[in-house]
Amino acid sequence: MVNASKIQDLPGVGAATAEKLELAGFRDMMAVAVATIGELVETAGVSEAVARKMINAARDNMKMGFETGTEVLRKREDINKISTGSEVFNTLMGGGFETGAITECFGEFGCGKTQIGHILAVNTLKEDPDAVAVYIDTENTFRPERIQQLAEGAGINPEEALSRIMVARAFNSDHQMLLAEKVDSLITEQKKKVKLVVIDSLTAHFRAEFIGRGTLAERQQKLNRHMHTLSKLASSNNLCVYVTNQVMAKPDQFFGDPTTAIGGHVVAHASTFRIYLRKGKKGTRVAKLIDAPNLPDGECCFEVTEGGLKDTDV
User: Fold this and answer.
1) Where are the beta strands (DSSP E) in the chain?
2) pLDDT at position 255, please?
3) Looking at residue 66, what is its pLDDT?
4) Are residues 121 and 264 in the same domain?
């Protein structure tokens, strides 16, 4: 076995090849280990035999394979929880929004999805003085004034809070996917300690650009690729990915709540936690946890105030 700690140590990789790999996004051993032979041939211009050697060497050094449940549990000790500010909401989520996972929040307009994104950003900064939040805005919903309000409520400097939130406006689905991929370079090249990525909203551009049943398969494949990028980003960097999602009403459902999330099974399967938000009585909001790997289904009621989320007696 070739002992390799970085890409340059792999067989067949010189300085020029390493540079090509890095430019294409293969910045660490894991990226090479999970790549296909075709990807490396196309990216680095090497032969299939060399690409196979590179992948095998990377896999040997990563010790990829099975591990015990005890080892997985030990790794989960590094998982953090980002507080929502509401005790009942935190309890519903097992202590807060989990890092290393994707949490999807869907509901009709005005139910508080964007508010939660702003609140999570501020609470991330409050809990870790070195942390940075990334906000990918697809619907022009990011408001720095709201961040200032929430920062004051959380007891942190509003200007400092704004300086630690990296905001990008995505103008179409391709731009949105590119911005998600660029988060990795923020971490590796600019050495930013990104602990939260918010995408508000996940499906707006996909919904607008792919119209009709004829484009559905293409849309879902593209969305699947995007979710895969976000999932890898969350797990490899131990950060929380929070995505908001739009809804539609099922026309063939005559009983019960016809509201369903856009993106179908692709988004549902890729999300670790799924929350259905709706408006409650007297201006309150109801969060219903409908999918989680280790938590029971349940719901809670809270209010959105100027200073953040708070529990309600309603």
Assistant:
1) 81-82, 97-98, 101-106, 131-137, 165-169, 193-200, 240-245, 247-249, 259-261, 273-279, 285-291, 298-305, 308-311
2) 67
3) 82
4) yes
Determine the Cα–Cα distance for residues 231 and 240; give it in Å rounded to an integer: 10
Judge if 16 and 100 occupy the same domain.
no
What local confidence, expressed as pLDDT, does residue 314 receive? 56
CA pair distance 9, 170, nearest whole angstrom:
37
Residues 57 and 82 in one domain: no
For residue 73, report the phi and psi dihedrals to the nearest 5 degrees: -60, -40
Boundaries of domain holding 24:
7-62
State the amino acid at position 143 in one-letter form: R
Give start and end residues of each alpha helix (H) in 106-215: 113-127, 144-154, 158-163, 173-188, 204-209
Compute the Cα dihedral for 90, 96, 97, 103 and give only its sign. Answer: negative
85 and 51, same structural domain?
Answer: no
pLDDT of the residue at 34 = 82
User: Taking a C-beta distance cutoff of 8 angstroms, is the pair 308, 82 a contact?
Assistant: no
Listed as ranges, residues in the chain with pLDDT below 50 are 1
State whether 52 and 104 are in the same domain: no
The answer on 41 and 164 residing in a single domain is no
Residue 1: predicted pLDDT: 46
Q: Report how far residue 135's alpha carbon sits from residue 222's, in angstroms, rounded to the nearest whole number.
A: 21
